[in-house]
Amino acid sequence: MKKIFSIILFSILSISTLWAGPLYLEGADQLSFDGYNTDAQVLTGNVRFRHDNSRMFCDRANFYEQRNLMDAFGNVRIVKDSVTIYGDRLHYNGNTKMARMKGRVRVVSKQMTLETDSLDFDQENNIGYYYTGGKIHDQESVLTSVKSEMNFKTNLFTFRENVVLTNPTFILKAPALKYNSQQKTAYFIAPTNILYNNETKIHTEDGWYNTNTEDSKLIKNASVRQPNGQNLKADTILYNKKTGLATAFSHIQMIDSAQQMTVYGNYGTFQKDGKEGFVNKQAYMAEYSSKDTLFLHAEVFRTQPDSTFQKLRALGNVRFYRFDLQGKCDSLIYNTRDSIMNMYSNPVIWTDSTQLMGDFIQLYQKNKRPSLISVTGWALGISQSDSIRFDQLAGKTLKAYIDSSVIYKVEVIGNAKTVYNAREDDGTLIGVNTAESEMLTIHMRNKRINRIVMMPSSNGVLYPEEQLPEDKKYLPRFVWLDNIRPKQMSDIFLKFEPEKKDKKRRK
């Protein structure tokens, strides 16, 4: 059995040697034989070998012709096609076409230069390996790593352990990376961090980046962080640093840490270092500057720069929810400069048991908390007195002043009207008071009306409930919209047809 195994092994070696081809000695200044190793030819001075389409040069070599091997020393050089490998020592196996170069190794091609201490080179497949650290550089970039596999046929190199790629505009760091030197493209195969101009920070775990065009595709935990505190996250980001344009897909988060707000969605485009943006598809915003987060939904969000601040435009089916404040409209503009929320087209705000509506609403904030709601263009305020009765006031302008999420004063200016359910201290209904004046002020205490001041003074009329005329029960355009009020965060995504709501308005 042992003899048979030896014959098979000898046959395999013979066939591989035949396929690989012999290692030819082209010349040397001097040839001698090693007295201790009669199998070795000792070559010195201008030594030259040829193997298939590769040529090898050195100062001195031991040539084992029968075994198709050679060891080279001093100014070693391998030339194959457009690749030249330099080093101090070389062990070359002509049967396997494997070259092992050591000592000040350099690999030079048209596209790049490699420097390392030790290199294994597969002549058959034109692939090089290093395991003890190396540096690759071209005209613009320098890449270092501990290990590498370099395919000079495809120009695709794989690097592992402490990979660092530097360029005049960025620094890339990763535990592993693939790089195509001809296409100038890096392929991300592990968590990767890129720093542009010591400002923009990019993170991804998959994708690619072209160092020439500066186009990139970031996949898996992708993010682009700007120096102004803005951070774009998404499942996939297409980004070009030259133009500053980014397109994001799925699970988008546009985070503004300076303004303490985040816009979410599933599709968006961003430009000018994240200052201008567009987000839609299940889009919503979370504003977390106070202890109670404000959630706001719209069909489309647009962000625009305003000096060092941001202007956010919300368009289509706008609805927002916070524990102490809810609202809806068709379009909204929020400016972080003055923390004013401008609501357009059928705007409504609810706070506690009060509903405010009109042609245009502005919500002012102080210290990140609502401080004033201003309603203009036939402003109407409604407060639920009980399950079937409503206190109402209306006018050209209505201002509701808020402290600690509670309305403590309401002013109505211009053609002020009111319908008020007067009650005893124990809550018993006395009657319904209707009044008109040019201006009125309502002072609240413990969420109930404490005092009403009208200027000029108005006598008003107090009707027993059963004698209240039908046309006095409700002010013009009255509609109670509690059925569309967001009562929890998820309600901001519900949709209602505007025309259906308008039909309910009382003329």
Structure explained in plain terms:
Helix content is 5%, strand content 63%. The protein has 507 residues and is mostly beta strands. The longest helix is centred in the N-terminal third of the chain and has 19 residues. The radius of gyration is 40 Å and the shape is rod-shaped. The N terminus and C terminus are likely disordered.
Shape by Cα distribution? rod-shaped
Q: Specify the helix fraction band.
A: under 10%
Count the beta strands: 38
What Rg do the Cα atoms give?
40 Å
Mean pLDDT: 86
Q: Provide the β-strand percentage band.
A: over 45%
Q: Briefly note the structural class of the backbone.
A: mainly beta
How is the biggest beta sheet arranged? Answer: 38 strands, antiparallel
- Unreliable spans are 1-19, 499-507
Tally the helices: what do you get? 2
The N- to C-terminal Cα distance equals 108 Å
SSE layout and pairings?
Blueprint: H1 2-20, E1 24-27, E2 30-33, E3 41-51, E4 54-64, E5 69-80, E6 83-93, E7 98-108, E8 113-122, E9 127-130, E10 134-137, E11 142-145, E12 147-151, E13 156-167, E14 170-180, E15 185-188, E16 192-196, E17 200-204, E18 206-210, E19 215-225, E20 230-240, E21 245-256, E22 261-271, E23 276-280, E24 284-287, E25 294-297, E26 300-306, E27 309-322, E28 325-335, E29 340-344, E30 348-351, E31 354-357, E32 360-366, E33 369-384, E34 390-403, E35 406-423, E36 429-445, E37 448-455, E38 461-463, H2 498-503
Antiparallel strand pairs: 1-3, 2-3, 3-4, 4-5, 5-6, 6-7, 7-8, 8-9, 8-10, 9-12, 10-11, 11-13, 12-13, 13-14, 14-15, 14-16, 15-18, 16-17, 17-19, 18-19, 19-20, 20-21, 21-22, 22-23, 22-24, 23-26, 24-25, 25-27, 26-27, 27-28, 28-29, 28-30, 29-32, 30-31, 31-33, 32-33, 33-34, 34-35, 35-36, 36-37, ...
